[in-house]
Amino acid sequence: MVMQRGGCIYIVTNLTHSVLYIGVTSDIITRIWEHKNKVHPKSFTAKYNCTKLVYYNFYPHIEEAIAAEKILKDRKRESKIDLINKFNPEWKDLYDGLANE
User: Fold this and answer.
1) Is the distance from CB of 44 to CB of 50 less than 8 angstroms?
2) How far are the Cα atoms of 19, 42, 71 from residue 93, in angstroms, in the given order?
3) DSSP letter at 91?
4) Which of 40, 41, 11 is CA-nearest to residue 25?
5) What is the C-alpha to C-alpha distance for residues 70 and 93, in angstroms, rounded to an integer?
């Protein structure tokens, strides 16, 4: 039997919300911690200080999350902003809520 792990797409931004980064992971808490602590200092998110989690969505299978990430990346910025506004109208950093669950 093959065990399948779920996945999550997420959007992080910088303090001025001028940059949006879309990612996919099977461990969102660890991945956002890595963004916040610039574990990969030469990465896009480290360069543009994208440390604020403003959107996420879980999927039962990682393949579904990867497919959703591709669709989301193809959308225009306005569509991504609308998605964030519906999910998180105050653009709060959602990381603490996840880490404390």
Assistant:
1) yes
2) 15, 23, 23
3) -
4) 11
5) 23
Looking at residue 101, its pLDDT comes to 64
Measured on CA atoms in the order 59, 62, 67, 71, is the torsion positive or negative? positive
Give 58's strand partners: 8
Give the gyration radius of the chain's Cα atoms: 13
Contact partners, residue 90, CB within 8 Å, separation at least 6: none
**Exposed (0-12), middle (13-18) or buried (19+): which is 30, by Cβ within 10 Å?**
exposed
Which pLDDT score is estimated for 83?
98
Query: Tell me, what amino acid is at 24?
Result: V
Beta bridge partners of residue 57, listed in sequence order: 9
